[in-house]
Amino acid sequence: MNLTTFVTASIALTIQKYADKYREKDLNLTLQELEEDMSLPNIKSFDFIVVGGGAAGCLLAGRLSEHFTVLLLESGGDPVPATYNPFHNRDVASHPAINYLYPSIRQANFAQESGGVVISDTGRMLGGTWSHNSFVYNRGSPHDYDHFANLTGDGSWSYRKLLQHFKTIENFHGRLLNEGQRNKYYSNTGPLHVETDWFPLVDAWLRSGEEVGFNIGDPNGHQREGFSPQVKSIKNGERVSTYTTFVKPIESTRNSKLKLLRYSDVQTILIDSNNRAYGVTYLRHGIPQIAHAAKEVLICAGTFSSPLLLHRSGIGPKEVLTKAGIPIKKDLPGVGQNFRNHPELSLVFNIGQPDWKLFSRLEESQVEKELNLYQGKERGGFFTEMDFSPQAFIVSRVAKSRGESTWSDIRLMLNRHPSLDGATSWTSSLGISLTRGQSAGEIGFNTTAFLAGEVDDVKLALVDHRQFTVKDDVDVMIEGIKLGLRVMEETSTVRGMNMSWRYDPPAACGNLVPRSDAYWRCAITERAHLAHHFAGTCKMGRDSDPLAVVDAKLRVRGIQNLRVVDASIMPRPNNANTAAPVMVISEKTVQELRTMYLVRGDETTLA
């Protein structure tokens, strides 16, 4: 076994070992804590209960605990060491020890080459999916937030209003394309460290964009159509998340008002006869427990689990609840509907003359040196790198025909593929993403499994993505593919590296003319895949919207003291990644709850 194989072989094994160690340690502590309860639930009360310790829940719980008592319930444990390392990004994202793996029902319009069954991985650990995703911190377009304001009739969702919340939480470092925008759009006083990822490839990418007629611009301050660098939540070569920023530093401090319980699966929201939420039931390492909330229950379980929890609690479509034998608390047809995501297709390119200043290669003889460099006081070198580098936001002809000429709906992402092996041929890939598609799916509730006593969310979810059911979505993808080929094949920067598209057709497409629209339609059907940008299953909206689950303040319709605060409330994902939007959703909610519940000394009283 050579040295590079030896290094990579350790990743999956150590993930499992640490996950097992963390669970066993917490189980022992739990049994010691519950020993005096005589195997009966000991009901404890808090001001707020936060369900789910993902990107939303950690920020919400940490910030609220500055003034209120908070119980944070997370179904997983601590992120394992591999999650902090950028190079391990893909390895941790699909490991079953730290993720939920949701299979879909068979899809008709994409992923046919793999049988039409799509596996969606979501993080089952503190920090949630943000503890295994690609670190990318993209706010999205200002039009995304203004769209939320229009849909809800609440101007506080406009980008102009939300900018204050972004600046409250961010500690921004790094280069900007327009330094004059720094004070207007950014802050360096918040707790969450984010920085510009300016690998040498970025400059080449920006030049390529200009060659094909596009501007270059900042992706976050006020996103416009054009080519951009990325911003990432990394500091000193390690992942930064809402868990590491808002929860980990305060969890064990003496005066902390936060109580964090790991390996705790919430089963139901407790709702009284007046339709007021007052607590939750949960299984802590499988042991039944109860907690009460004096003020509110805040669901932050994510796009898959939040609608499932509402179903189990009697909130959802009445026909589904009736079939499952669940007493109906509120008939809300939209629970689980409007399931949205960003479909993608990757184009692979052979690099005939790679410039190693732009594309990373680590030879066998360099491995030990780079390992020592990463383990140094200031982590650096090859093992701080990851696939994703620069990006572009493009407005399609379809968007322009709808009068949305400044609201991009195509995203290009250049992937560098840092490589440990000694391959003689090198590749890069370009991801083409449809970011404002019209197709929508569903997270259904498996009533048969529920009646059989199933409690696992993966077994209770009936996942149907339904991507590319709208023709315009396919047309926009093809436009993005053709633009991507122009950038990769016709610009001087990449042409100098002898870059060429690798024609490797799916079996079903081999008889079609390469690069024809018919070929690309077939390739999309066969090989399109999904991002981790799930949203929409508990969407917010006006009272007149039949699929709206929560109002503009994220309160569940018809139920008092219950909110959903995560990506599921977005009518659709922003036109980039979802981590930053989820954070601003949480921070906005924190400020509104602080306004609603006045803080006087050590006492909290209702406003």
UniProtKB/TrEMBL annotation:
This is Oxygen-dependent choline dehydrogenase. It comes from the Eukaryota. PROSITE patterns: GMC_OXRED_2 (PS00624). Residues 302-316 form the Glucose-methanol-choline oxidoreductase N-terminal domain. Its cofactor is FAD. Keywords: FAD, Flavoprotein. The keyword Flavoprotein applies. The keyword Transmembrane helix does not apply. Transmembrane segments: none annotated. It comes from Folsomia candida. It holds the Pfam family GMC_oxred_C. One of its GO terms (molecular function) is oxidoreductase activity, acting on CH-OH group of donors. FAD binds at T129, N133, S134, F135, V136, V266. Belongs to the GMC oxidoreductase family. InterPro entries: FAD/NAD-bd_sf, GMC_OxRdtase, GMC_OxRdtase_N, GMC_OxRtase_C.
